[in-house]
## 1
Amino acid sequence: MRTNGASANAHDLTPEGRPLALNTPTVFNASLNFRLNWEGNFRSLEDHARQTLRNPAIMGSSADEVVSKLRADPEAVGPFRDAYGREPDVAALLDAIATYERSLVTPGSRFDRWLAGEADAITPEELSGYQLFKSLGCISCHQGVNVGGNLFQRHGIFHPLGSAEPVLVRVPSLRNVATTPPYFHDGSAPTLSEAVRAMGIAQLDRVLTDGQIAAIVAFLDTLTGTYRSGAVRPATDTPHAATAFP
């Protein structure tokens, strides 16, 4: 993929050109999250795809409408017959979308390699950042195979962090975080350094030093993985929000 699975916009646009309320998360590694969307209001990729298709602020369509268009296209019918043994229908459509999304995982980050025993996969500075990440308590929310994405948390515990709503958000994964600016549910932090600084104040009630921020950012850089053997890159263009909805 030519982008990080999302876009570089703080807010992508609706079909009518209005900004969406929340920042669009990357679709990479979405299948590893326990819930989908910032508000965590979807439990499965299939249900999320169905609702996204019918959401007037994103696709303004429906699974039935998509199936009707697919059935009218012989080039689309053939692959569905090969994969599912039948013409496109809603169940096959949603399964196809979800199956594709489950393929969008990005293993092989330098941190993954370090965890697997490759001692020189990360530098001393990056290791220091990881130790700081743990000692400050960042790891209490950002842990597990997706380095996050497996619980809800209140943002702005000590001080405001971006827009007030929604009060509870699904903790985002930090995989590929160095390639996915801007940050937070409202896209209000344009750089990773600013995001780390803001998180320290809002969630930990700590004013981090420039050295601490640099070390944590260095560690976060080690979480960039690969997609089909190619390095994940920062977004350079702006796909429609519906291509990166989880």
## 2
Amino acid sequence: MDVVTWVSAGVALAGAATTAVLGYWQQKRLRTIEKRNLMDSYGASLAWAAFDLQTRLYNVLHGHRLDNSPGTGRGFLTVCLTHGTRHEAEYVRRSTVFVLAEYLGWVEILRRDVQFLDLGRSRTNRRVMTKISEIGSVLGRMSPESNALRLFRTHQRAVGELMVYPDGEPGRRRCLGYAEFCHCLDTDEVFHAWFSRLLTDIDELAADAGPSVPRLEKVQQLLMALIDLLDPKAERFPQFRQVFADEERPRPEGAATPAAAG
């Protein structure tokens, strides 16, 4: 074999190797972009679900403070569940359990499709993962005083799985809506069984939320921290976020407490 043939073979081999390497890195880059696009898309839905859940927790906690402060009126659960109509009471039970379940549903979707453990060196992605884990830990924390709305991690996964729409495809998954959730409660005994204790927990909170306050406050604070990570520029709900920020600041004695979204 002459020199020209050897050189040609070497050039061809080098070219093939370069093409393979470039192809590998291009595919890796495309997979990373695809995962991050999923994180952006699902992250928005997760942020809204987290916001709805923390809003309801805020209303429960703020209502407890009203119930225990003479002359300030009745709290959310007292008005709607204890002294409300049968329909109002049932709405409060179901909608409170729904916002918790919807949040867990979007966490499950992220776990299935994004696989955020492989999202690379993004500091934000790692912090989102950590915050989700912290929320799960507090939701599952046992307390000698009260375990209202407590779900162990495996139960959290089960609830999340039930909330994921069964016909969804990777990248296009969604959670059950409220009407679908209520329909399943009414028509599917197995589905209802996973939520029966949680529905009963709402009545426990209405009777006395005090024992559950420390844990639920921690969950609400962690949810707000998660929202800050998912929506750092406060573009989705800035006016409501200001309400909750004001609530955390010290206020002069006798000053009014801001009202939260319903």
## 3
Amino acid sequence: MDPTDEDLLFFRQRGVDCVYCAVKPEFNSVEGLLSVKKRYAEAGLRVHNVRNLAVTNNQADIVLNRPGRDKKIEDYKTWLRTVGRAGFHYTLSNFNLAQIVLSALVETRGSRTRDFA
């Protein structure tokens, strides 16, 4: 979340009225999220979806039950509570097992395919 005033004006001039925003760690609090919401609102934009990539992306430890799994689950639950308290009703997560266990692209019978670990 570092759009310049010019960026925000550009969005509005293109007819954009709703945005998706991935926030930096310093905005991962209710107060931080409210400041993000306010920044966009002042430009006439509504933040529809806010995402904390450190918590919601690449969750291999959770999906594959690796060490650190329980901490990541708690971090995720804390993020969901924070998002809700800031008045957001939508966030994204990436629990895509194919991306997590994909180890390589291989050629099988003349066709490229995925090779899973």
## 4
Amino acid sequence: MAVLPARVQIVDVGPRDGLQNEKQIIAAEVKVELVDRLTDAGFKSIEVTSFVSPKWVPQMGDGAQVMANIKRGPGVVYSALVPNMKGYEAATALPRAQWPDEIVVFAAASEAFSQKNINCSIAESIDRFAPVTEAARRAGIRVRGAISCALGCPYQGEVKPAAVERVARLMKEIGVAHCGVADTIGVGTPRATQAAMAAALRIYDLPNVSGHFHDTYGQALSNIYACLEIGVHTFDASVAGLGGCPYARGATGNVATEDVVFMLDGLGVETGIDLDALVDAGAFISEQLGRAPVSRVGRALLAKRGKVFV
């Protein structure tokens, strides 16, 4: 039996990757409270917002307001997705104390998805990010990268591990410090997940590779366990299971953070996260959205408390 990591870091991406897919506009103060609740629950890394065109992602049009009002916890990394230099300039137009501690850039492992999503090739997308990463590094801001559709694409189907390795190499060449491998449409299974991770690990060392799994086919927890078996110990997850992908028809949300923490607690793997406080955060944002949490653990623990969503 594989020896699992003693500790795992979870990056909660619900405030950004989760809420960006909501049809209703969520007030900035609600987003701020969600981030603050996650901070209080013990997260050391939270993806807060993105600096993108509100024309394309209206839910993220208040990124500057949210970054300006969150209560920053000691040692917590607050990140924001930045798609281009315009976004980077918006993120750093704030007073320095309100800047993201880390910016996130992204590229697809699928040429078809890259064209459909951002209307350019993979190579062109990397070229767009090169000045962003250069500027961020000069300013002392860490750059994290995400490789979308690393385990499958809604347009081209199968994605080979070699494609993941190629994008990881391109990211490394422009100075991206960390590589996240993302199953954007949730089609990955454990062996395929390990192969995609192994491809990224040929370019990045173990502490700088992470997993990001959607639960479309119910495989996210299995895929996280498969990653643990090979030593990967950083994962994205989304409070209450918020999220999805507007470019991938039928794709459900990210794996629910509550479900991941419950599993890791059962494995004796430390996360530093207070599960009860996390469930409270999930209940809070779900009430704001007018629906029950997607998280099975969240619903089960809330039901034990007598909380029923209708």
